[in-house]
Amino acid sequence: MKPAHTLQKLQSPQSWAELPWGEYYRAALEQQLQPWWPKLFGFHLLKIGSLSAELTTDKCAISHQVNVGMSGAGLQVRADAYQLPFAAKSVDACLLAHSLPYADDPHRMLREVDRILIDDGWLVISSFNPLSLLGLAKLVPRLRQRQPYASRMFTQMRLLDWLSLLNYEVLCQTRFHVLPWHRKGGKFLSTHLPALGCMSMIVARKRTLPLTPTPLKMGARKPSLGRAVGATKSYRKLP
């Protein structure tokens, strides 16, 4: 498995329109997110990256929404995603719409997002699926320098592993939009073969307690009250 960190500098698109069939990706992602926005609650939603900023989130229950990124239209705060200018545990939800595929150090980006999220905060991640028609096209050498094939494509299993290490509870994991050149992504294929979808989405929540109890966390067993601790049996001979 290739390491997550790379020395290659990836150029993130400033808009979904810069990607071939990008508006189709955007519409498909917005449709998948639509039932989740009313479930998110809190005071602050952070939309990290220009692609996140372009997504329609007016149905979100969180009214105060801030677009953050280094460049692009519609940004309220210009900042590096590796050094977000927000206090620890001050944000209720973060949206990373295709931010990790263009990150040279996705681990560091996730750790920074984890720093600013409150306990039980929401994290929404989307990316491209390498096990799809889009991923197969990435194997063609002459396409690797073009968008979206120039991005890094992580399997959903790998993303879930990263979230598990940070102690996130995954509430939703899905893949969709099988045919990238089709407006509806091939509705029949997307319904019956979602694992081949070009798009991947994960909704998770930050947990403070371990999801799986361990002996160290549970503590050592208390000694039984039926016997004294450290006592030994002794017998006195009767006269």
Automatic annotation (TrEMBL):
Alphabetically ordered keywords of this record: Methyltransferase, Transferase
Residue ranges occupied by any Methyltransferase type domain in the UniProt entry: 77-125
InterPro entries tied to this protein: Methyltransf_11, SAM-dependent_MTases_sf
Gene3D superfamilies given in the database record: Vaccinia Virus protein VP39
GO terms assigned for molecular function: S-adenosylmethionine-dependent methyltransferase activity
GO biological process: methylation
Annotated protein name in UniProt: Class I SAM-dependent methyltransferase
Source species taxonomy: Bacteria, Pseudomonadati, Pseudomonadota, Gammaproteobacteria, Enterobacterales
